[in-house]
Amino acid sequence: MAPVYLDYNASTPIDPAVAAVMRPFLEESYGNPSSGHWASSSAKAALERARSQVAELLGCAADEIVFTSGGSEANNLALKGLFFLRGNRPSHIVTSQVEHPAILVPCRFLDRLGATVTYVPVDGSGLVGPDDVRKAITTDTFLISIMHANNEVGTIQPIAEIAKIAHANGLLLHTDAAQSVGKIPTKVQELGVDLLSIAGHKVYAPKGIGALYIRRGITIEPLIHGAGHEGGRRAGTESALLAAGLGKACEIAQEWTGMPATQRLRDLFWDRLRARFGNRIALNGHPDQRLPNTLNVSFIGHVGAEILARVPNVAASTGSACHSGQITLSPVLQAMGIAPDVGMGAVRFSLGRGTTRDEIEEVVDQLCRVLA
Ligand SMILES: Cc1ncc(COP(=O)(O)O)c(C=O)c1O
Predict the structure, then answer these.
(1) 274 with 356, same domain?
(2) Ligand 1 neighbours by CB, cut-off 6 Å
(3) What span, in angstroms and rounded, lies between the C-alpha atoms of 343 and 335?
(4) How far does the centroid of ligand 1 lie from the alpha carbon of residue 154, in Å?
(5) In the chain, is it the N or the C terminus that has fewer CB atoms within a 10 Å radius of its CB?
(6) Which tens digits make up the pLDDT trace of 68-102?
(7) pLDDT of 48-57, one tens digit each?
């Protein structure tokens, strides 16, 4: 059987149209976008066009977009960039237990620098309760950071509701939209967020580029100091090559109409697995408030990594990690209160533009064979 890729939440292939807009910056155009002569004009134009394309997808102004090296940097810039301006004031951050390490680890770092952090719990489907967020707020809170959609189980958080709570308390709301952008609507006005992170390689753009939306009027301390690139928010000569790729990818995502078909394939996948495995499998994540491409399934009594090792031509992910021979349950599934014998058997299948019905049928057959 030909290799099947069902790990689009981990990364996506570069769309050919994205590669095409990048090619001139590999082969011909080399000027510095900040220079003022003929050699820089195509880079400068590409950079600003890309900024507008990203802004269009997020429904914001182009000058509210800062290019970064990816989702991790965008998250770090949001959290640390706001914290560093706090000076000596007590600083408290509210986040959730199911965030990506690109939020959790910066939070731990800020904790070492004197911030306090509250990690609000989630329910069994991975949902954050807006009331729990409200209760976590203290007089020292300056920031709430809750992810838009979870990378492992796909659960979509009630961001608009949390935004109302944040703003009623005079707080800023950041959301990590690395997984949601291009899959579900991510207009910043509708979400009501003040800062939002995206990662290029999750939307058919290359790795090494992402962006942070920073609402006009919000000041952050740069993480990288130097010249005044990106409106003084991130120093370093911008890559027109990577930005052009991200911009085109955002334009394509904006026009993409294939997501309902992806969702139907995802649901067919689940139906087929249910028909074959019955109650020996369990769905992890919210039944409907979930990314349309994501299917996290527990094969009860099995170990996810071992299942994947037995279907080596299927690329998918497992949240459980193996440390010195010991298998540990993914922190996300732990936070959801999933029992260890269920959670250990979790496999995340994430579908994308290239996924076909034949592939799904074939993967179901293979899983039946190895788990018979
Ligand atoms: C929810 C979430 N946030 C952040 C990141 C990190 O993005 P990047 O790999 O672009 O740094 C990822 C990538 O897996 C993610 O899924």
Answers:
(1) yes
(2) 70-72, 100, 102, 147, 151, 176, 178-179, 199, 201, 210
(3) 11
(4) 13
(5) C
(6) 999 999 999 999 999 999 999 999 999 999 999 99
(7) 999 999 999 9
